[in-house]
Amino acid sequence: MVAIVTIIFFFDSDKVLVIYKGGSITKSEFFDETDQQAFSKLDYTDQIEKMQKWIIKTILFKQATDYLIFQDSNLRYELEKIRNDEKLARVFNFLSEDFFINDSLLHNTIEAAKKQYTIQDIVVTHTLSYSQNQLRTRSDAEIRAETILSRLNSNKITFDEAVSIYTEQPSMKINNGEIGPISFGTFPLSLDSVIWNSKQGQILGPVDSKFGFHIIKVLSITTNDPNTNPRLKKKTIKQDIERGKYGLRDAHANNYAEEWLTNNNVEFYYDNIGELWKLAKAEDLFIIPDGIPLFDISTLNYIKPLARLSEKDLAFDWFLEKAYQHGKFQDAYFVKGYYLFRFIKDLIIRDIAAKWFDNLAVFDHKATSVIIENKQKSFLLKKHIEEELKKDSKLTDRIIINRFLINYNVQINY
């Protein structure tokens, strides 16, 4: 099949390049997105083919942004996802490049890496912690941890007795809650930082981590000699930090995220999130081994707010809609309440980060907009071809393109 397309030869960037059923496109629009020098080196056939694909992408894009997008929420979400993911890629790249290993950071890490701690650890778990207690809310877990600490500080019980009474994991109870010697970087940095700033015999807590609320006693501290351990050399430590060991690079990005949450007055309704998780578990929605699908949780019609952002309460519907606008969040499965909470927190952070990108002058917004639009256009062309192939699998890309040009009565003035 050969496309019957009128092609008129002349060159003027202010002139209309394409006339089609429903609108027109100027030459300047084409060359704003095309390397004119590279284009001029193509032979005539390749020029026309490149131009035709660009024309179809542009017509599809104009339709989508003008009116069709408001009638097709799935299409709107896909285009918004491309926009958000491109912005977030630039934000994450900025955060990575912004991380700098200065002398103070390197010195403190070397000193921390020299030490090993042996501790006793009591962890109070809850519905949203990685180690779960299905019946205990997060607020109840925090109260329980505070009670343990109060009893210890008032000498009503010894730490050994507290381990026997309160430790939930059988293996930890057998070991009397003892862990170690542990090296810096073994635990999440938020937990390591507390331990590595403590003294022998000190009782710490409650310390909140992904595992729950910790009450910790420091049993002993040993110091390794860097002259006998090559892993403690300055050069090696620096390389380890750069590779992500010790969690310092991640902590740098997390500090930005926590600042965004604070500046936007974000509050998480932990008990409501835990209640939603309990409802999902009670409805037997778990698919072995993947967990509970996001869409199945939406069928529970849970209407209580899960978080608050900039003085606005956010119910599950808000997160469901945002999930379709970021990465692969719409494909999420949850095996634990912890992952449901992380899903909620991560989506809020991504939503804030996208707005942060818009307001920060350090980013090249114009160049990013061009890249986003080109990716959206390519997506629309791919989607159009896929839809046509569903109707007739024998079609080729070339035939589909030609049909589109004919159906839209495309006239190329080139």
What does the model show?
The protein contains 17 helices and 13 strands. With 414 residues, it is of the alpha+beta class. The chain folds into three domains: 6-71 and 365-413, no CATH class; 83-96 and 264-359, no CATH class; 114-235, Chitinase A, domain 3. Strand 2 and strand 3 form a beta hairpin. The protein is elongated and about 90 Å long. Residues 1-13 have low confidence and may be disordered.
SSE topology:
Layout: E1 6-8, E2 16-20, E3 23-26, H1 27-32, H2 36-40, H3 44-66, H4 73-98, H5 103-114, E4 115-124, H6 138-153, H7 159-166, H8 170-174, E5 178-183, H9 189-195, E6 203-209, E7 212-223, H10 234-242, H11 248-263, E8 267-268, H12 270-282, E9 292-293, H13 294-298, E10 307-309, E11 312-314, H14 316-323, E12 333-334, H15 337-359, H16 365-391, H17 397-407, E13 411-413
Parallel strand pairs: 1-13
Antiparallel strand pairs: 2-3, 2-13, 4-5, 4-7, 6-7, 8-10, 9-12, 10-11
Helix pairs in contact: 3-16, 4-15, 4-16, 5-10
Task: Give a quick set of tags describing it.
four-stranded antiparallel beta sheet; alpha+beta; 414 residues; 53% helix; 13 strands; Chitinase A, domain 3
Main CATH class of the largest domain: Alpha Beta
The total number of structural domains is 3
Distance between the termini: 22 Å
What is the CA-based Rg, rounded? Answer: 29 Å
Quick one: how many beta strands?
13
- In spatial order, strands of the major sheet run 1-13-2-3
Can I get a quick summary?
The chain is 53% helix and 15% strand.
